[in-house]
Amino acid sequence: MTRTLNGGYVSPSVRERVMLAIETLNYKPNALARALRTGRTQQIACISPAIDNPFFSEVIRGIEEIAIDHGYILSIYSSQVIDRRHETFLLPGRYDGVILLSPSELNSWLVQELAESHIPLATFWDWGSESPYPSVAVDLVTGVEEVIAHLFSQGHQRIGYLGYLPSAETDVNPRLLGFRRAFVNADVDRAPYCVELVAGFGTMEEGYAGASRLFRNYAGLTAVFASNDMLAFGAMKWLRENGYDVPRQVSVVGCDDTPFCTMSNPSLSTIQIPKRDVGQQLMQLVLKGQRNTDLTVHVTLPSRLIVRESSGPAL
Description:
Blueprint: H1 2-5, H2 12-25, H3 31-38, E1 43-48, H4 54-69, E2 73-78, H5 87-90, E3 97-100, H6 109-117, E4 121-125, E5 135-138, H7 140-153, E6 159-164, H8 174-184, E7 194-198, H9 204-217, E8 223-226, H10 229-241, E9 251-256, E10 269-272, H11 275-291, E11 298-301, E12 304-306
Parallel strand pairs: 1-2, 1-3, 3-4, 4-5, 5-11, 6-7, 6-8, 8-9, 9-10
Antiparallel strand pairs: 10-12
C-alpha cells in the first residue's frame, strides 16, 4: 500500500486492488507517520501584517488554492502579535515553507532564524529595492503614474498623497516613488506635490486621521491618492463629514481594488492588483524552493487603473 500511495511502481492490477481496499475501508494516511518517514509536514506558514484587511485575505486565498492542490495545509499568523513565543512553531520540523506578506517582516528576528534554517521562504515584495529572498512584486510605480496622469487629464493640479509606511525608508516605497515621478515627468508645470504619511498598517481609522492632517497642512487640494483602499475609505468619510463632495469637490483614488470598492458610495477608483495571482505565485515559489534551496526568483506582476465614481473633473 505504501508504495502505491507514494507513487512507486506497482502493476496495474495491484494498484486497482489497493485503491479498492482504500475506498472500502475508508483508509486515511497517518500524517504524523508520513512526516517522520519523508521529513515533510505538508504544512506552510503565512505571516500577514493585517489579516483583517481584505487585500491580504484575497492574497491568502490564492496561496491556499495552490497549497491545497499540492496537499499542503496553510497556517496564518499576524505579524502584529507574533513574537519569540512562536519561534519553535515556525522553524523546520513543523512547516515546510514560510510566506511573508510584507517586506517589513524581514527586519524581524524571525527572518534571521529562518534564513539560517534554510527553510523555503517567499515574500510579497512591496518595496522598490530588490528582495534578498524569492519574491513576488507588483509594478506599482507605473500604476501610480497612471493614476496621477488620469487626475492631471481631469484638470487636477493640487493632488495630495495619503500613505502609510511601517518603516522610515520612504525612498523604497514604490507608491510614493510613482507619485513623485509623475509630477517630475509632467509635461507642464504643476503645483508642488503634497504628502502625508501615517504610521501604522493602512487602516480606515488612519485614513480618516491622515485626511484631517493632509487638508489642514495643504490648502486647495482637489484630489487625493491613497496608497491603499482602506486609507481611501477613511479619507472619504472625513471628507463627507467636513462638507466636501466626492468627487465634485475632491476626487479620491485608492490602491488594491478590494471588494468594497464597488460597494462604497461613491464607488472607489483604484489601482487593481492581481491579488490571487500574487498568492498563487508565492506558493509556487515555496514549492520551487523545496526543490532548490539556493533559488532566488523575483516575479513582477502588472497593475492597472480602474476608474469609478470617486474621481472626476476638477472644478
